[in-house]
Amino acid sequence: MKKNILLIFCFFWTTLFFAQNISCSPRDSVAFTQKIAKLHTLPQYASYGDSLVAIGKTFLKIPYVAKTLEIGEKESLVVNLHGLDCTTFIENVLAFTQLYRNNESTFESFATILEKIRYRDGKLDGYTSRLHYFTDWISNNETKGLVKNITNEIGGKTVLKEINFMGTHRNLYPFLKDDSNYAKILKTETNLKEKEFCVLAQDDIAANEHLIQSGDIIALATSIKGLDVTHTGIAIRQDDGRIHLLHASTESMQVEITKLPLVDYLKKIKSNIGIMVARP
User: CB-side exposure of 245: number of CA atoms within 13 Å?
Assistant: First the structure.
């Protein structure tokens, strides 16, 4: 009986996902249900940031897995809750926080929110509609009203840099073998040339740390040619009174909270030039 129920359950989800261009395994559909049950046990937090941090903590110890979105022959809305990279961690936490704050619990609502977060103007329209560059991610999600870029308000300075890593490293991205996708990425990079972005320099973070709140999204800006951001996480103020980073770590290969405060953690990263801060 249990086996038959599971088969029916899997068939239902597979049919639903195929119809909606969603990629999600039965394992992840079960994980979604478990996550929703866990959210129902959380207290009502006064601030959005506190809600986001509490939900982010429910992902602790989930393994870090790279390139979870690079599957199939065409772009689909990938729902993967058992393996996260730094960006999909942010996106999933933000999507579940939206559900929680809106008192919603359906998978359909979750998928709609996730698509809104992950894709340009909230619409999945092929590989190049995904917000690949995190400066672009922040800017587009600010337009949608999901976050506010506060980097300038907390001491950030304008950085002039050409963002073209994908275009100059075409061989690293399987979907860019398609000439149409490649041309669209080059157009995206051309548009990014017209946009300035602010970075709070590494040497200035300590003096402005008090302006960062738990729940703020932290993007690590880089000196690597052609790239804007190499890593992301969520600010969390710990018992030591300092801001730490809740993130999907490539060191421990799981979601964790940094033992060191953010300021000290960044000093270990040679290519880091500072941070961008977006407040959900």
Answer: 25
Token output for 2: 């249990």
Confidence of residue 20 (pLDDT cuts 50, 70, 90): low
What's the Cα-to-Cα distance from 8 to each of 12, 20, 86, 110, rounded to whole Å? Answer: 6, 18, 34, 22
Q: At what angle do helices 179-193 and 134-143 cross, to 10 degrees?
A: 70
Identify the DSSP state of 179: H
pTM of the model: 0.92
Q: What is the 3-state secondary structure (H, E, C) of 59-101?
A: CCCCEECCCCCCCCCCCCEECCCCCECHHHHHHHHHHHHHHHH
Strand partners for 5: none
What tens digit of pLDDT does each residue of 142-177 get?
999 999 999 999 999 999 899 999 999 999 999 999
Q: What are phi and psi of 142, to 5 degrees?
A: -70, -40
**Tokens standing for residue 258:** 């940094």
